[in-house]
Design a protein that fits this description.
By secondary structure, the chain is of the alpha+beta class. It is about 45% helix and about 15% strand.
Length: about 190
């Protein structure tokens, strides 16, 4: 059994109480036979475009410069790969196949999401379970839960990010957005 329990909700106590392991206690190994999704480059371009918006919401909850710097470096190095096929093992068990809309990480900065090969990025953005997996990855990555809905909404937004930009203005996060762009080293010309 695998039970993913939020970190701030007593993960260690739950593990001790039930006598189970946390994700930190198990070894997940990605097998070599990975088939990347045909739209992985399009997905990666989209992820790069939305990084400042994702970082905006994360920065809004950070209180220290050290955590800000750690978070910025982390998102710069974060890799989310969509795959058509991937096998993995847990603690040397029989190989398991990553199913569509499931995700797994091979290290702190590298994640994989299973996706149907026949779907393009816009179709994937219309699948609630895929969007949920994307937002869950960011919650795991940032070790937070409070921005899950924001992360999902940003990912689902369309090409020009009209909804995302509108929400940043209405939530008075424009200064945080500008800070996120600056910290990511984006020039005014690179910002949508």
């Amino acid at each position: 059994w695998i039970f993913d329990f939020p970190k701030r909700s007593g993960e260690k106590q739950l593990a001790d109480y039930f006598g189970v392991n946390t994700f930190k206690d198990i070894n997940i190994e990605i097998q070599q036979n990975i088939s990347y999704h045909p739209k992985i480059e399009e997905f990666n371009r989209w992820f790069d475009i939305i990084k400042p918006y994702l970082l905006t919401y994360r920065l809004n909850n950070i209180k220290t410069i050290e955590l800000t710097n750690t978070t910025v470096n982390a998102i710069k190095n974060c890799s989310i790969n969509i795959v058509s096929s991937l096998d993995y093992t847990i603690d040397g068990s029989e190989p398991k196949m990553l199913l569509p809309n499931e995700f797994i990480n091979s290290d702190k900065h590298t994640f994989f999401i299973g996706a149907d090969t026949n779907l393009n990025l816009e179709q994937l953005k219309d699948i609630p379970a895929f969007c949920e997996a994307f937002s869950e990855i960011l919650c795991v990555f940032f070790e937070v839960n409070e921005n899950k809905d924001d992360f999902r909404a940003i990912f689902k937004d369309r090409e020009y990010l009209k909804d995302t930009k509108y929400l940043i203005k209405t939530k008075m996060l424009t200064d945080r957005y500008e800070e996120a762009c600056q910290l990511l080293g984006l020039s005014k010309n690179e910002i949508l």
